[in-house]
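If it is no trouble, can you show me the amino acids of a protein and the tokens describing how it folds?
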Amino acid sequence: MAGALSGTLVLDLTRILAGPWCTQMLADLGADVIKVERPGSGDDTRHWGPPWLPEQEGERADSTYFTSANRNKRSVSIDISKPEGQALVRELAMHADVVVENYKVGDLARYGLDYASLSALNPKLIYCSITGYGQDGPFADRPGYDFVFQGEGGMMSVTGEADDKPGGGPQKVGVAITDLMTGMYASIAVLAALNHRNASGQGQYIDLALFDVIVAMGANHAANYLITGMVPHRYGNAHAAMVPYQVFRTADGHIIVAAGNDSQWQRFCAAIERPDLGADDRYRTAPGRITNRDALIPVLEDVFVTQASEYWLSRLTSHNIPNGPINNYEQVFSHPQVVHRGMRVEIPDGEAGALPVVANPIRFSETPIEYRLTPPKLGQHTDQILREVLGKETTQIQALKDTKIV
């Protein structure tokens, strides 16, 4: 069954995570994604190990990191530092619907692979550039990594325990959230641009900055500051506007409790057998619980530590209070809901048997996502792409290999 983006050709000039996350999403949706990589080394994340994929005889193994963002793609190795390599990419761009790249500002213009150059050859081309700080502004030329942006863009100012608490201080999110969300914004932007092109026949340029994305992800914290002028601060595992909404230690571990409104608060008090707290005027309303959190939370902490986690999870569930354990990834992939929803899938691999991957969470009724290709080996599809997409003859392909263009 054809995917939702079947028939769409994406030229992927990205590496690391933000760009590949975008192009993997497009590939999952059915696009034919051609990943252009440097001969001999390829995407940087191929080497970000251990852990590594099981090594095939006579081949260098790729990192498991690389597999997280590169399934359903084909890899072609082209040396774009050479004019002949640049010419091949331009040829591919003439066949492409979308180009996604994450080179430094101005880098691809030196090779004639920027939007102005490629759109002159293919006016319907959608060209998405992903950079650290965007194409303009005083910081445009600076490089950057996710960690830097989490700090500079405000995320770490609201993540982690308060400075006066044990272990207090700024903390990054446990995954590269700036990269991942930039990839998601990029895929949304590409889809919108494709829709616009379908209606108008026009391609367009998309400028996405990781720094812009992490600032936008401030969401309610950023809105609160803009409207009130009050600088948000860290609450650790608690919530600025809901109480109780946090982690509690139990007799044998930790659980998460989220009583987000006044009716849930009353059911929560019944679940923990403390109706006196529900009747207390200080805590009956959400503003009261927020104002008096310093008095309330220690009382709740003393309650939860008296019983094991499973006891409290059962009690809270029976009273319809949102709650949950804190799972490691072994526990996540054995979770009955994760198993039922098929969030672990295997892509057949002729050499290794099958590669387990995390499923795409999107569920379509008419164009289901298919897991067609394992993350490609470096240059695995070079001959195929040069022959099928560009119509190169065997002798031409061999000549490109002999001169180390591919």
Observations:
- The chain has 17 helices and eleven strands.
- Residues 21 and 241 are 32 Å apart (CA to CA).
- The two ends are 33 Å apart (CA to CA).
